[in-house]
Amino acid sequence: MSARRPSVFCAALAVALGLVAAAAGCRQAPAVEPERVATVGTEDVRWEEFEVYLERHLGESGASLGSDVLSELFDQFLSERLLVQLAVERGLVAGRSLDGAETPRRAVDRLLAAAAREEPEPSPGEVAAYYAAHRHEFERPERVRLRQILLDDRAAAEQALAEVRAGASFDEVGARLAADPAVGADAGYQGELAREDLPRAFADAIFALAPGEVSEVVAAEYGFHLFHVVERLGAEIVPLAEARAEIERRLRQEAADRRLERLVEEARQSYDVSVHDRNLPFNYRGRYLEQ
């Protein structure tokens, strides 16, 4: 028995030494610091920086948001960090990093503005092509220009209706009975409204009126209405000349979205992004998970 003990002891010692060596090897690759949630290029990103981003964009810490929303916001945050590095590299930010006078948003705005200067404005041909392809979006339904008098009790509303039908001006009666007389004759003007802009009970009463007519008293939970249709406008398609400014705005926005995506992709090709998702207090499933 005693002859075997040294070999057993040596084997156990070898195993123990092997475990110690393995543990020492593990200690040579330190774990990522808990507060470090990502690395963008050579810069570490800490959780409190993302909290500042959330506060800046949402006005809150994001504690009430789900993982899917937080993942999308974290992607936007990392994309901004990428774009800031690209702005620094291209000399659009003084020095090699942001200082107190430069915010990430300003750096990104400079990068986007520089890219925008390289692209032309929407041409008349592009505007016309967009109008032809999206013509249905420029359809206007039947509408009314509407005024109303809203009062707290039915008796007062019935009295106002009687005055109007006796020949008093709807506008004058409305201004006199308005909760705030200082607003004057425009107190009850509701603007240009389509049927879909109104509660169904109101729409049926209003669109049954001819121009110049006044409705019966219409009851609601918060008071009693009198409606006056000033004018009825038929369904139409907005002409190209009138739609041009809106189309140009849409085309510029589409171009800006493409520029942003292109610049983010350029930055991703230039700088590595590592997300330390185990350090995130939510279940991250964003676009940078396996870059």
How many strands, what sense, and barrel or not for the largest sheet?
A: 4 strands, antiparallel
CATH H-tier superfamily of the largest domain: Porin chaperone SurA, peptide-binding domain
Question: Whole-number average pLDDT?
Answer: 84
Strand order of the largest sheet: 5-4-7-6
Distance between the termini: 59 Å
- Report the strand count: 9
Kindly name the structural category: alpha+beta
Global outline: elongated
Helix content: 40-55%
Strand content: 15-25%
Reading off the top of the CATH hierarchy, the class of the largest domain is best stated as Mainly Alpha
CATH architecture of the largest domain: Orthogonal Bundle
SSE order, one letter for each helix or strand: HEEHHHHEEHHEHEEEHE
CATH topology of the largest domain: Triger factor/SurA peptide-binding fold
What does the oligomeric state look like here?
single chain
- Quickly count the helices: 9
Fold blueprint:
Blueprint: H1 5-27, E1 36-40, E2 43-46, H2 47-58, H3 67-89, H4 104-116, H5 124-133, E3 139-140, E4 143-151, H6 154-165, H7 170-177, E5 189-194, H8 200-206, E6 218-220, E7 223-233, E8 236-237, H9 240-270, E9 273-275
Antiparallel strand pairs: 1-2, 1-9, 3-8, 4-5, 4-7, 6-7
Helix pairs in contact: 3-4, 3-9, 5-9
Structural account:
The chain has 291 residues and is α+β, with helices and mostly antiparallel strands. Strand 1 and strand 2 (43-46) form a beta hairpin. The radius of gyration is 34 Å and the shape is elongated. The chain has helices at 5-27, 47-58, 67-89, 104-116, 124-133, 154-165, 170-177, 200-206, 240-270; strands at residues 36-40, 43-46, 139-140, 143-151, 189-194, 218-220, 223-233, 236-237, 273-275. The model is unreliable at 1-30 (pLDDT under 50). The strands form three sheets. It has a four-stranded antiparallel β-sheet. It has a three-stranded antiparallel β-sheet with strand order 2-1-9. The chain folds into two domains: 30-140 and 237-291, Porin chaperone SurA, peptide-binding domain (Triger factor/SurA peptide-binding fold, Orthogonal Bundle); 142-234, Roll (Chitinase A, domain 3), CATH 3.10.50.40.
